Amino acid sequence: MQGSRLAASIAIILLLSLGATSAFAKGLFGVQTHAIRVLEPPDVAGEYEGAIGDFGTPLYGASLTGRVLAPKDNGNGCERFEDENYEAKWVDSDTPVIFLLSRGECFFVEKAYHAQRAGAAAVIVADTKPEPLITMTTPRDNPTVQELVPEIGIPTALVTKKLGDDLRRVLGAGGTVVLEMNWEEAVSNPDRRVEWELWTTANDGCGKSCEQQAEFKRRSAALQVELQSKGYTEFTPHFKVRACDRLSLYAREDCAKKCIRGGRYCSYTGVAAPHNETYGEKDVVVEDLRQLCVYDRLRERGQAEMWWNYAAGFAKECRMEDKAFDGKCARRVMEGMEVGGGSQSFVREVEACVGDPDEDAAHPVLERERRMEREMFKAGRGRVSYLPSIIVNGDQYRGRLERSSVLRALCAGFQENSEPGLCLADTMQTNECAGEDHGCWTNPNSAKESATCLDTFRGHLCQCPRGFIGDGFRCEPMNECTLGIANCHQICVDTEDGYECECEDGFLKVSGTSQCVLEDACKVNNGGCEQMCRSTTGEPECYCNVGYSIGADGRTCRDIDECAMGLDECEMRCINADPITSGGLRYMCACDPGYTLDFSDPHMRKCIESDKVLESLGVEEPKGKSPGHVAVEIVLATFLSALVVGAAGFVYYKFYHQRRLDREIKAILEQYVPLDDKSKGEGKLKRTNTMASDYEVEPATPTTLVENR
């Protein structure tokens, strides 16, 4: 049983390494493409796609233009190109040479290696059957070929069978093929920050690949700490694990010894001799988990970039070769880090996160890693089948695991003109603004007012000078007013230096702005104020009459309740009043029972006892008369006064108002009936009573009617 399981596992690994079917490979790898533009000849010219190889050095953010050559002998590139004349012919040219080779008979890595030795600047491999593009990978089970991978420093790509046949047809007829391999958009560049991931292992004893990963961490740590601490990048490490299942190379009884957590998590990489005599896969997966816990605890402290310090320190000090690949060495590295809260507290938190490797239970951190890989596959980005794997802004990185190559891919992920200065170093890209052939617009009237050339990682940008508009390669004077881009409130006036804002008649411009306001905002609808309005800065300011306060809307007024607010001066009781409806009174005073307002007080605010009213007015009470008698006299006097006033009113009504009323009623009746002052027997108005409603009309004298019969 164990032998059959081992045979099945080996068969699957061979399938993966040799790429038996393109459909299977497509499911495992996210195919990353770049543009291939055929410039000559015209009948083939156009834009095509090439699948970036998983080895070599893609020129991320740049392009390569060259002549295509297809060797007549050794057309698949599986043998070394020994003919020196061939090599001299291909290399002796100012134009780079791009080899066109056929797929099959050997590994892709061997084809690229042989072409590079022959002087090729890039390699294109044409498929031999019509199928979707796949990723050219490296054979992980062939150490001899694997040794060639670090030596390949040129770009590689796979193209379709149709494009390869078209190019060979032109070359076979003696024609010339010129094409451009363009990687400017091979990595997404949506914003000013690059987000990238590294799927790796802490193992440094699995062979060449593990040694390269450890070296990459040591050499890249300082750079990556700087980029992330300054906010240029956001990095996340990942570690791939597998379960001890029926497809495992391990026997079931070995799972507990070589894996952790009851066989749930095993290392994706093995330990090669002679290191396997001291360490095993269980030691590797424990350290993988520890490095994930280190990252989580640092991220909680806002120091995620320091993961690189730990990873580089562990790769340098805790090597299997030095028999230091263990938790004790890991603790020393952690204790030497300057982390928030102190290193001792940090170490305890990390160890608590790692937990007991022999506990038969799932671990949340490792489950998270599995979940993320499943989500990648569901999103169509393929599986992480080989380590290391790098993903930049969601795009799979293809190329060598080498500091400058990875940095080039990161630089290509920045939005244009937002990359850090190190991306513009001469060793990273060519400064296209250094010469005079950048193509930016030159003002024939003034060299100082010409377009500015801005060097970027993917090329360069041209920026029109102020007062001009265009793409930088062509500029023309800008009229902000007609373009509708001026920030003027009312009137825009175009000037040589730009534009100026003015206001219409009756308006003033607010100092320091382009806003216009009315000179006197109170002239229109009282400025929107309910009562009073004043305009000092062109804006209406509402205020209220005495006895009112401004409302929350700043426009309406509300009565002030002086009584409730204690603003009155009443001796006893206060009654609030609205000044509008009370003739200007804000409040009135009243007295308690048994008291009367003191009429001697001009403001009527004090109260006195009711039987002291006359005394307060300075009137002496007549001798021999009782208070009741005096009160009767006052009442009679008041009554007589009212009678006199009533009589005067009656006289007014009788002799003036009544006569006026008669004239108005007569005028109305004249419109409907004949009266005695009209001719031909008009009726007379006869008053039957003194009331206007008691008028009647006397009948007119009868007349003879004329009949027509």
Which whole number gives the mean pLDDT? 81
In DSSP terms (H or I, runs of 4 or more residues), the helix count works out at 18
The biggest beta sheet is recorded as: 7 strands, mixed, barrel
The radius of gyration computed from the alpha-carbon positions, rounded to a whole number of angstroms, is: 51 Å
pLDDT < 50 runs, ≥5 residues: 1-27, 675-709
What this model shows, in words?
This protein is an alpha+beta fold. The protein is 31% helix and 19% strand. Helix 9 packs across helix 12. The longest helix has 43 residues, at 627-669. The chain is elongated, with a radius of gyration of 51 Å. The protein starts with a helix and ends in a 12-residue tail after the last strand.
Helix and strand topology:
Blueprint: H1 2-18, H2 22-28, E1 33-40, E2 46-52, E3 63-69, H3 84-91, E4 97-102, H4 108-117, E5 122-126, H5 143-146, E6 156-159, H6 161-172, E7 178-182, E8 194-200, H7 208-229, E9 233-239, E10 241-242, H8 255-258, E11 266-267, H9 281-300, H10 307-317, H11 327-335, H12 343-354, H13 364-378, E12 389-392, E13 395-396, H14 403-412, E14 452-456, E15 459-463, E16 468-470, E17 475-477, H15 480-483, E18 491-495, E19 498-502, E20 507-509, E21 516-518, E22 532-535, E23 540-543, E24 548-550, E25 557-559, H16 562-565, E26 573-576, E27 587-590, E28 595-597, E29 607-609, H17 613-617, H18 627-669, E30 685-687, E31 695-697
Parallel strand pairs: 3-4, 4-5, 5-6, 8-9
Antiparallel strand pairs: 1-2, 1-7, 2-6, 3-7, 8-12, 10-11, 12-13, 14-15, 16-17, 18-19, 20-21, 22-23, 24-25, 26-27, 28-29, 30-31
Helix pairs in contact: 7-10, 9-12, 10-11
